[in-house]
Amino acid sequence: MRFGGYALHLGEKVGCRLIGLDINKPGVRNANQLAQARGLASQVRFEQCDASKNLPFDDNTFDAVFSNDVLCHLPGRPEVLVEMFRVLNPGGRMLFSDALIIGGMVSHEEIATRSSIGFYVYSPPGENERLMERAKFRHIRVQDTTESAARIAKQWYHAREKRKEELVAAEGKTNFEGLQRFLSCVHVLMSEKRLLRYLYVASKEFRDDLTP
Fold it and tell me: Is the pLDDT of residue 31 over 80?
């Protein structure tokens, strides 16, 4: 799904107001244009922001914070979670996914292939829960979505193979083959449960409920 797709889908289906953040300026521009084209500009907007730094919002601003497979790309995860907690209203909820939970033995070649398209941080099981608790999140729930992630990676791989000629023309042969190797690696690691994808949900309790 293109950048902004999840936010625009929520805006259409739920009717809520959203602000999407990304460090990529062209992506932010395109997402705002898409929101305008779909008649959602009054309720969904996108801003350029380095989410690994302090967020440009006041305390207690949002009812919910959502991050789809983004935290694994950001340095300083403990501080990122603290910021997510800070901008949430009391009673608000946070949801994020992490597709880089170590579930078994992974070779250095597989790590290199899985990390070939950007900056990545791998986590041991239980580490996200520990960091969330330290950031004062409560009512933490975890759902294993590894099988779905493996299936989607396989579907993307085969969909791209069907359009190989036009994608090679647009991306170049080297980039096309590199992304295919990446998707194949993701599918193998997740189908064998050596890398896991977890979905995390937690809440910010009201002040009277927080323990010192």
Answer: yes
